[in-house]
Amino acid sequence: MTQQERNVKQDQIPFCEERQQLIEAFVEASRELVELQSQQTQNVISGDPDFVRFDDLLHMAREKKDQAKYALIAHRETHRC
Ligand SMILES: [Zn+2]
Predict the structure, then answer these.
(1) What is the whole-number distance in angstroms between the Cα of residue 28 and the centre of ligand 1?
(2) Is the pLDDT of residue 35 over 60?
(3) I want to staple 51 with a disulfide (CB 3.0 to 4.6 A). Which of 43, 56, 75, 76 is the partner?
(4) Total domain count for the chain?
């Protein structure tokens, strides 16, 4: 590899497929959490006593989102992408 080729390679924005998948997983988990929160809010507003059942679902959705976030952070630290 010549010096010039090396420079070109470094200037490119690295595309990392794994990072992209982790970002998508995080976005998806965030959407699910927001969706559940809005459903629970609607249930509270409409006086549905069943709104507490959302707490477990919200807890799971929050954990899923956190896991996706930490996976993304860990990937960035090890991969430098
Ligand atoms: Zn990567």
Answers:
(1) 19
(2) yes
(3) 43
(4) 1
